[in-house]
Amino acid sequence: MHQTNVVFEAFEEARLRAPHLECRALARLLGCSEGEIQASRLGRGVHSLALTPCDLIMMLPRLGRVQMVTRTTHAALSSRLNACHIDADQRHASLWSDQALAMQLLLPCWYWVCLSNERPTPGEPEVPCLQVFDRFGRVLHQLYGLTPEAPGWTLLDYFTALKRPGFTRCIEMTHACSEDDRPALLESWRALRDPGGSRSFCRIIGYDGWRPTVPWPDISARRCHVSVLSWHWPAPVGVRSPPGPA
Predict the structure, then answer these.
(1) Which DSSP category does 42 fall into?
(2) 0.85 cut: is pTM over it?
(3) Strands 103-106 and 85-88: what pairing?
């Protein structure tokens, strides 16, 4: 709780002294995640939503005109939806309209959703905003209400709560391949071209039943068509085997 108060005080100080500083930039300066910053504001402008991902997805058409931003480490995809259409099941959802980019949502990655008032870009007025985070506190999606008077935003207020998320610290294990490591990496990759090498690789990742029907494609090829392979994966207990290629 003490750390939460420190993060909140840092957020308030940054908003006072540098109002154009974005939340992700502040998170880098503080050495925490954006989710931790938003969680520190619970009850002080931020509320959790007591809704399942599927229920929340089905409420999105009631929010009127929205701007949806999907973020990754290196890029952000933004699209304005005047009236969104939804195709969804228990694990996936697709938001689209006739004049905007389609957004693909992986619902099992959702960990915490909060409702607050945020600025779509620095200098713009605050509008209602839904933010979706993964278990590491990273922002997956941000959805800004461009028509705050839409009835859906009022309806969301009935599902607000003060439940605090428990984020997990993410340890980055990846690193750039150095010049000294590159020959060994290429040699290991070439070894996967023969059936013995590919079977060894599949044993490492837990799929002993994988069998290529044709030789492994040359890594020097600029284009590799997945259709030249077929998979025979043994399914773990309680899991159905994935379908083969069409």
Answers:
(1) B
(2) no
(3) unpaired
